[in-house]
Amino acid sequence: MSTIVCSFLIVKFMPKVIFILYCLVTLWAIGSIILHGSRATKSLSWLLTVIVIPFGGPLLYYLFGVNRRKFKFFRLRQTEKRKLYNENYSQLESSEEASEIANPKYSKLSNLNKENCFFSVYANNKVALFNDGKETFDAIFDALKKAENFIHLQYYIFEKGEISNHLYEILEEKIKEGVEVRLIYDSVGSFSFKDKIIKRFKKIGVKAFPIMPLRFGNLLFTLNYRNHRKILIVDGLIGFIGGVNVSDKYIETTGLGIWKDMHLQVEGPAVDSIHRVFIKDYHFASDEDLLINEKYLPKNTARGDTSLQIVTSGPDSKQPAVMQQYIAMMNSATTSIFIANPYFIPGTTVLQAVKIAALSGIKVSLLIPKESDSLMAKYSMFSSFEELLAVGVDIYLRNDFSHSKVILIDEELASIGSGNFDHRSFEHNFEANALIYDKEVVEKVCKEFKSYFEKNETLDYKTFKNRSILQKFLEGMAKFLSPLL
After folding, report:
1. Cα 9 to Cα 3, 27, 104, distances in angstroms
2. Which listed residue (228, 263, 283, 479) is catalytic?
3. Residue 230 known to be catalytic
4. How many CB atoms neighbour CB 168 within 10 A?
5. 67 and 155 share a domain?
């Protein structure tokens, strides 16, 4: 109420010229929201924000709310580059023939992902699973040391520290041996990776480029769209994909403890798909178009028995591919759905898919961290728990901080990658997941998953329903703002 009163007083006593400008800006924002809003709940949140916060509301909407894909004059040159790249290279054949799905109940899911992302399912891959930062980086460093031709890295967060220093030392040595090194990083997530730090890497020969750099002239258009992918390719033969960033959070104790995250090492035909994600983004960031040739896309032979499909999405995608992937996975379930995610803020459509599954008799289990690196995210997540518990969803709170983004179906299908269960991952970020069609590998993930059910807190519906008025209020405020996240 005090905010509304303050807003009224500001408007009442501001000069007429400023008042007229305020009215015009506010009317523009309201008209844009009504005409081009993508969801009613999100539009309502933006309308209230614009009305309640004079000038600040319209500015926030301009920065984070405008659906720029609906405006030709907002289309960035870089976005057009990505679309041109799709037109030129989407039909390129992989070095391996696509594989049939062993379980026919997942054929619609695989077809959906192929239509959205151009990547087929490829069999005969060798997959190693990591759930610990130290073992993940040990595997990464070991693969880097074996590089003979090139190393390609892409991370959302690239921070200075012990991990990046060790990485620097390895890259310096490999470059001396004649290995090419290319690195792309997100401008916001890797905000500290600049000035002397980036110059240090470039000085030894690393070709490093920011994705959607924060520069005058395009800041207002790119700030809301981030590249959230975490992938690495060595010689086109070994690929890493998952949720781990280059950060000491995974090896050193923070306020949330040592972060946990699931990551994959892949060898075999699916590495080609992972590499094409990097190639497209590198072309987007650097303007270099030299990576589409046999030197960088070698033929990958059979290395194992796992079938794998890469799923990607971004603000330039025709469809919200990651959101559709998650919904299609849940719709294919017959016995169980396990979800682990640090930012479970699903929105109405995905929330209904979860509730329908639970009401249909499918065992639905949700594993999230008890504490979060974002209070807004924490209360936004908790705001949906009462209705989920009411329909029989089991919710477990981890005492450590898990950054993993995992969804398991019937203990025989798994998705591991960078995509969260929130509006940002579904609509604003460039994401990459690996979909594993292999019961034996998925059982290993399930075993890890179930171990947390036994040793962490379970939410009880009656107890949670009687939580304090203050917590309900904070959840309500966060829920109101969650469509803007």
Report:
1. 10, 19, 64
2. 228
3. yes
4. 16
5. no
Same structural domain, 43 and 156? no
Q: Alpha carbon 132 to chain centroid distance?
A: 19
Active site residue 370: no
238 and 307 in a single domain? The answer is yes
State the catalytic residue, choosing from 403, 422, 423, 479: 403
Nearest CA among 258, 97, 284 for reference residue 182: 284
pLDDT in tens, 360-384: 999 999 999 999 888 888 999 999 9
Within a domain: 118: no
This prediction has a pTM of 0.85
Domain end marker among 312, 343, 361: 312
Residue 27 belongs to some domain of the structure: yes
Would you state the structure tokens that stand for residue 281, as one six-digit string?
């983004």
Active site residue 263: no
Domain that holds residue 65: 2-72
Tokens standing for residue 64: 């984070």
378 in catalytic set: no
Distance, in Å, from the CA atom of 234 to the CA atom of 359, rounded to the nearest integer, reads 45
Q: Which of 410, 422, 423, 438 is catalytic?
A: 410
81 belongs to the catalytic site: no
Active-site option among 230, 280, 355, 378: 230
Number of domains in the chain: 3
Residue 156 lies in a domain: yes
d(CA 29, CA 49): 10
* Tens digits of residue pLDDT in 35-68: 665 566 666 766 777 776 776 666 666 666 665 5
Active site residue 472: no
The secondary structure of residue 94, as a DSSP letter, is P
153 lies in the same domain as 247 = yes
